[in-house]
């Protein structure tokens, strides 16, 4: 039986202790008991600072009324059956909100019309293989159920009733669902008696990024009702980390992926400011920095990465940051307002920060070793076009050089000295020169690490040790779509997918990672989208207008398209992602002509 847990650590969040809930699972779910604790592993409330902390059952998430009345629903004729052809989508109005109407294989489906991730209009997305793919960030939803099938994001779409009468299409929907535009999947709760042992958990998840959170949620969605503990170095509950560099003055509570009440309701325990220092795989036990020990049955390692820092003279001066937390980001904005900001590194993080600070800082300068920003990732031509956009927004570039020294006045940063002998005025400096896997605590664990410190896993996200899984930025895994090449893809969407696969395999479901990589960045109100895995590309075929930043770039290796990027060209990246995800190869000659008829999809 699972239980609830508290620990004498400041900021630790503890869900309810005295919560007894019976979960009745569908027949197919009842066999998933592999992780039930043995008698000795049954948890109990741990007395922290002399008091056990309790949350009452009344604090759970509000449930919809069990017997909704007719007045809670709206029904209307939305179109004639001949108004939509097969493969078409249309937004229709129901009075209380819009619905996405889809016609596929002669059948009509009605779903929520906005992607729950960031609110993209799904009518502008791509309909293919019984699912609709978001035009912005690539999340996929099953049109028959509304279920989220590929990431990013956590929630699914509402599915509404459709009926045909006298050649008219009627949709019936709950008013609440129309307004919410998102649906959290049904989840089991932690069946938690008040007696037990505090020193053990059924599932321990190290890291509360996308991989850790999705793993916990997937376990609950699959009917797992035993104890789940997540632990993090952070002081916050899981939050939307990619937003940190795109919107630096966003407050922690605005970034939260789930409210506190969610973790209480589903008995998902989160230990904040909790650092794991050793993992003992033989005895299935982890030790925290403060000496606290916790046994586990199954372990997910999702520690993420640690930013690289400068090793130059003066590296210890004040007001030099790597952006890891909301507090870091907030401080950078405060210090940069009306002052001089220097960004070291012209990768995604550095360029996002530079773009955001242009309206806040007196000056923004970027220092980079390469000739152009994003060169290794997006190629010379796209990198140069983006660089021009930044220069048009007052960003000054110092390329093909690096930092020699950081000079301070009264301990605070005043100047950045470059190897090219230039001296740049600076009141705040943000370092974005890459990251290394945060796996130092695993060196003596017996879990295999590669020469760079990454955790190699198989398609099921299993490490070299049975019962120990890993996911997220710190892993290398076989990319099915690129002939199982072992890769590291440190992106938000991929971490979600890996977290789900790890959870499914903790439950012995034999799931394999098959997600096609999809990522995005936003600068000056423009979004760049990217799908595939372009490492090692030998040519870039560009259609559209780079000068106008309305283009699509196809990255090829030999005769094959291996990645695509676009700006102001939606939903081309989602269309290409669907083609590649379906297993079809795209040949170089198909994209060289400029004829995109092979990609044509229907939407309205």
UniProtKB/TrEMBL annotation:
Residues covered by the Rieske domain: 76-171
SUPFAM superfamilies: FAD/NAD(P)-binding domain (SSF51905), FAD/NAD-linked reductases, dimerisation (C-terminal) domain (SSF55424), ISP domain (SSF50022)
The keyword Iron is annotated on this UniProt entry: yes
Cell compartments where the protein resides: Mitochondrion
GO cellular component, one term: mitochondrion
Domain of life: Eukaryota
Function: Induces apoptosis through a caspase dependent pathway. Reduces mitochondrial membrane potential.
Family recorded in the similarity comment: Belongs to the FAD-dependent oxidoreductase family.
Entry-linked Pfam families: Pyr_redox_2, Reductase_C, Rieske
InterPro entries xrefs: FAD-oxidoreductase/Apoptosis (IPR050446), FAD/NAD-bd_sf (IPR036188), FAD/NAD-binding_dom (IPR023753), FAD/NAD-linked_Rdtase_dimer_sf (IPR016156), Reductase_C (IPR028202), Rieske_2Fe-2S (IPR017941), Rieske_2Fe-2S_sf (IPR036922)
Originating organism: Trichechus manatus latirostris
Annotated protein name in UniProt: Apoptosis-inducing factor 3
Keyword Transport annotated: yes
Keywords (A to Z) from UniProt: 2Fe-2S, Apoptosis, Electron transport, FAD, Flavoprotein, Iron, Iron-sulfur, Metal-binding, Mitochondrion, Oxidoreductase, Transport
Gene Ontology molecular function: 2 iron, 2 sulfur cluster binding; metal ion binding; oxidoreductase activity, acting on NAD(P)H
């Amino acid at each position: 039986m699972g239980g609830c847990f508290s620990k004498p650590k400041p900021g630790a969040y503890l869900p309810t202790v005295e919560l007894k809930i019976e979960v009745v699972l569908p027949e197919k779910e009842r066999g998933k008991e592999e992780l039930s604790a043995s008698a000795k592993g049954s948890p109990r409330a741990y007395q922290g600072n002399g008091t056990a902390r309790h949350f009452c059952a009344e604090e759970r998430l509000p449930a919809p009324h069990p017997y909704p009345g007719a007045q809670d629903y709206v029904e209307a004729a939305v179109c004639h059956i001949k108004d939509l052809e097969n493969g078409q989508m249309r937004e229709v109005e129901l009075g209380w909100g819009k619905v996405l109407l889809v016609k596929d294989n002669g059948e009509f489906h009605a779903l929520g019309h906005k992607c729950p991730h960031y609110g993209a209009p799904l009518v502008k997305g791509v309909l293919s293989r019984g699912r609709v793919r978001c035009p912005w960030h690539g999340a996929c939803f099953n049109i028959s159920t509304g279920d989220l099938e590929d990431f990013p994001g956590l929630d699914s779409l509402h599915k509404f009733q459709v009926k045909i009468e006298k050649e008219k299409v009627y949709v019936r929907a709950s008013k609440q669902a129309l307004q919410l535009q998102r649906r959290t999947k049904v989840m089991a709760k932690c069946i938690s008696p008040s007696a037990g042992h505090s020193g053990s958990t059924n599932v321990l998840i190290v890291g509360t990024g996308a991989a850790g959170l999705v793993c916990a949620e997937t376990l609950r969605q699959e009917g797992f009702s035993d104890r789940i503990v997540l632990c993090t170095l952070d002081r916050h509950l899981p939050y939307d980390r990619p937003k940190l560099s795109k919107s630096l003055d966003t407050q922690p509570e605005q970034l939260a992926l789930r409210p506190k009440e969610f973790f209480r309701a589903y008995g998902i325990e989160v230990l904040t400011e909790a650092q794991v220092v050793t993992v003992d795989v033989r005895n299935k036990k982890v030790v925290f920095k403060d000496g606290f020990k916790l046994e586990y049955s199954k372990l997910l390692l999702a520690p993420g990465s640690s930013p690289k820092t400068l090793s130059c003279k003066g590296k210890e001066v004040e007001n030099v940051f790597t952006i890891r937390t909301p507090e870091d980001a907030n401080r950078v904005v405060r210090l940069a307002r009306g002052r001089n900001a220097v960004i070291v590194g012209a990768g995604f993080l550095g360029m996002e920060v530079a773009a955001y600070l242009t309206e806040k800082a007196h000056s923004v300068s970027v220092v980079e070793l390469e000739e152009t920003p994003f060169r290794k990732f997006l190629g010379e031509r796209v990198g140069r076009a983006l660089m021009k956009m930044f220069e048009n927004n007052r960003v000054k570039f110092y390329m093909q050089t690096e930092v020699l020294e950081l000079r301070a006045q009264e301990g605070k940063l005043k100047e950045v000295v470059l190897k090219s002998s230039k001296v740049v005025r600076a009141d705040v400096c943000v370092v974005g020169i890459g990251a290394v896997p945060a796996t130092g605590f695993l060196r003596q664990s017996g879990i295999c690490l590669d020469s760079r410190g990454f955790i190699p896993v198989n398609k099921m996200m299993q490490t070299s040790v049975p019962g120990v899984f890993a996911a997220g930025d710190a892993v290398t895994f076989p990319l099915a779509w690129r002939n199982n090449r072992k890769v590291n893809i440190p992106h938000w969407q991929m971490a979600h997918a890996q977290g789900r696969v790890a959870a499914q395999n903790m439950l012995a479901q034999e799931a394999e990672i098959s997600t096609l990589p999809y990522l995005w960045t936003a600068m000056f109100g423009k979004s760049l989208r990217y799908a595939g895995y372009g490492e090692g590309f030998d040519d870039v075929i560009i259609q559209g207008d780079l000068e106008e930043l309305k283009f699509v770039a196809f990255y090829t290796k030999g005769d094959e398209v291996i990645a695509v990027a676009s700006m102001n060209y939606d939903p081309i990246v989602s269309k290409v992602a669907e083609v590649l995800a379906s297993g079809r190869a795209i040949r170089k000659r198909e994209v060289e002509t400029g004829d995109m008829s092979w990609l044509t999809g229907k939407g309205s």
